[in-house]
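User: I want to check something. If I give you two sequences, will you return the structure for each one separately, not as a complex?

Assistant: Yes, each is folded on its own. Here is the first sequence with its structure:
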Amino acid sequence: MRRLALAALVAALALPAAARQPKAYQVTGQVLEVSDDLIVVQKGKEKFEIARTPDTKVTGELKQGAKATVEYRMSATTAEVKATKK
């Protein structure tokens, strides 16, 4: 009985690790803005506003004007299904 309970616990803990992650993207460019919750990078004429969390790993000094490569993943904030025309 203990083995069954242990197996169930291990399986439950493994589920979040098995969850699919969206593809990782990266952008390299000049850092325009840095704060505790945002990194803004300009690549050519495009500006990338990327959320920053306490889990974001930073190597080196991330500051305005520096050239940096930022890896990010996209996540949906809303999804609205539209009716199809017949």
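And separately, the second sequence with its own structure:
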Amino acid sequence: MKSLETQPAPGERLVERRRMIVPMLIIVAVVAIVLGALSGLQHFGAQMGKKMMAAAASAPQSVSTVKAAVTEWQSLIHATGTFRAVRGADLAAQVDGIVEQIDFDSGNEVPSGKILLRLKPNDDYAKLRQLQAAAELAAQTLKRDREQFAAEAISQANIDTDVSSLKSARAQVAAQQALIEEKIVRAPFAGRLGIRQVDLGQYLAAGTTVVTLQALDPILIDFYVPQQALAKLKRGFSVSATVDAFPGRTFSGTVESINSKVDPNSRNVQVRASIHNADKVLIPGMFANVQIADGETRSRITLPQTAITYNPYGDMVFVVEQHGNDDQGKPRYTVQQRLVKLGATRGDQVAIEDGVKAGEIVVAAGQIKLRNGSSVVIDNDVLPEDEVNPNPPNE
């Protein structure tokens, strides 16, 4: 416990407290001044930002434009398909045997019925001659017995037996001839042969493929379309096909048949078309892009697809309107935002069902920075693609 002599006097304690309060007041004042300065700067920055944004919004934006044009529009159904031959088969012998003769080369064009391959006949021809001799004997026996029957020397039962023996002998001849034919491979129809799969002297099991034969002109293409297309699709409609192997070339044909049922898994229906293939460059198994004309040609207002602003609540375009001239005599343009109803697409183009009239000027590029009533400057030095059948380079 301290003595009374060591404790400071009341006046001294008051002076000490004042010394501590003065620095604290100075610190609070400095902090208040700094915070006020920062708040002023923030307010000033916000005001300047608003002014700059307003100035930017009021400045004309550079855009590219196109004129809404009326074009002849053929509605198309798009699909992918696979080519197959009108007639195609993998040829094979019906019985086992040794390859004795090959009468074709890979890739040959052959007529119907041409002999392509023979198996070694062994004793087949000897058996055939034996059976033919037996049939000739049965025929002679029947002839003699008929003469004797006319003289009433034998009964009708003998004649019936001779007739049966002759028929049996001829049937055995026919069976042996069929066995020989089974060892010969012929072209069942005219077409182009594939690559030979056998060699001379090779033992060939029954059913082993010798070569493929394909009839290529015309050629068929199978593809699938959604079931909704059945209302517009009919036999005889025009079809065009393109393949990667021949860029820039289009092959034409017609719809030949439509399947009588819809696939319950995909809800698509199979369609088959016949394609002209006079030079036989299309072969079975090739992949193709298919377009089917599903009705008469109609006039439609079209725009490049880049002109459309797609939104969940509706598709829009910006229509350019002129409002007099500026101080320098140049036209002053603004844009008007419109909802449009879109139709089918074709290449880079889209059909406009409603919302734009023919001849109106529409923004095709640069609309991302626009809003309703924005001022614009038209610069059409670079325009977006607007092709019916675009063919971009394969890079």
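Because they were folded independently, the notes below concern the second chain alone. Residues 10-58 form the longest helix (49 residues). The helical segments are 10-58, 124-150, 156-181.
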